[in-house]
Amino acid sequence: MNKQEKRNEVENLTDRLKKAQVMIFADYRGLKVSEVTDLRAKLREGESQFKVVKNRLFKRVLKDQGLDVLDKYFTGPTALATSEVDPVSPAKALVDFAKGHDHLELKGGYLDGKDMTPEDIIALAKMPSREELLARVLGSISAPATNMAGVLAAVPRKLLYALNAIKDTKEA
């Protein structure tokens, strides 16, 4: 890699760092190329990205951004999973993938200005996704209106049942 390529890579990593809601660092040693390809595909489904980074270049980016505390994760081969949309989806994808592949090891991460341990990432993966949370909120908001409509519809329905019962008794 020449100097210009390194500068471009630092700029790309800086841009990714600024846009990312979450960063998860993993050791991918021992994974086959096909397994890494499968992992990337699963991450893309959740609008996340997975990139193998050069430790020295990413440490430079971290230093420029004042995140030197994350340097400890950049020993040995390191891959970076990021998401600009949903912080839960890359955590879920990585934790699920790691269950079936012993070679993928979560090193740590960064979310909302805080350093995350592998245990924190696993806890994050157990949270419902953004879509599930939005559906729950929408359900909670619409529940009172739905209940009110049911109550208002019940009054004429009961009146109709009573009229039909009177009709049936007069016919008999």
Looking at CATH, the homologous superfamily of the largest domain is Ribosomal protein L10, N-terminal RNA-binding domain
Global shape: elongated
Structural class of the helix and strand makeup?
A: alpha+beta
Helix content: 55-70%
Strand order of the largest sheet: 2-3-1-4-5
Query: What's the rounded overall pLDDT mean?
Result: 86
Level-2 CATH architecture of the largest domain: 2-Layer Sandwich
CATH topology of the largest domain: Alpha-Beta Plaits
Largest sheet: 5 strands, antiparallel
Number of helices: 6
The fraction of residues in strands falls at 15-25%
N- to C-terminal separation? 96 Å
CATH C-level of the largest domain? Alpha Beta
Number of strands: 5
Could you give a short description of this structure?
The protein is of the alpha+beta class. The protein contains 6 helices and 5 strands; from the N terminus they run H-E-H-E-H-E-H-E-E-H-H.
Helices, strands, pairings?
Elements: H1 3-19, E1 22-27, H2 33-45, E2 48-53, H3 55-65, E3 78-83, H4 88-100, E4 105-111, E5 114-116, H5 118-125, H6 130-171
Antiparallel strand pairs: 1-3, 1-4, 2-3, 4-5
